[in-house]
Design a protein that fits this description.
It contains no helices and ten strands. The protein is an all-beta fold. The chain has one domain: Rieske [2Fe-2S] iron-sulphur domain (Rieske Iron-sulfur Protein, 3-layer Sandwich). The strands form three sheets. A four-stranded antiparallel β-sheet has the order 2-3-4-8, with no helix packed on it. Strands 1-10-9 form a three-stranded antiparallel β-sheet, with no helix packed on it. The chain has a three-stranded antiparallel β-sheet with strand order 5-6-7, with no helix packed on it.
């Protein structure tokens, strides 16, 4: 598990990027926390810089829309899903379970 940030540092509607291989984007969607690969599957763009609406993030480059719960794109130009990661909140801190993948908080 890697540390993303404190819950207080990620208000609803916001995101944070956790650098690593791969980089991970963590979102606060109305009090629910989600983590996905930060790089859009269509082209190299940071999803943490996208627009959050409910449980969906819009890529800032070509407007592909991804479901934060599944990682699946819901419209073109993206056709491939991004990986999702389990999120754990403990003692006011958000952790991402990378399944043993290397990441740097």
């Amino acid at each position: 598990m890697i540390t993303a940030c404190a819950v207080d540092d990620l208000p609803p509607g916001e995101s944070v990027r956790v650098d690593g291989k791969p980089a991970i984007a963590v979102f606060n969607a109305d009090g629910e926390f989600y983590a996905i690969d930060d790089t859009c599957s269509h082209q190299d763009a940071s999803l943490s810089e996208g627009w959050l609406e409910g449980c969906f993030v819009e890529c800032p480059l070509h407007a592909a829309l991804f479901d934060l719960r599944t990682g699946m794109p819901t419209c073109l130009p993206a056709k491939k899903a991004v990986r999702t990661y389990p999120v754990v909140v403990r003692d006011g801190v958000i952790y991402v379970d990378t399944g043993g993948r290397e990441a740097v908080a």
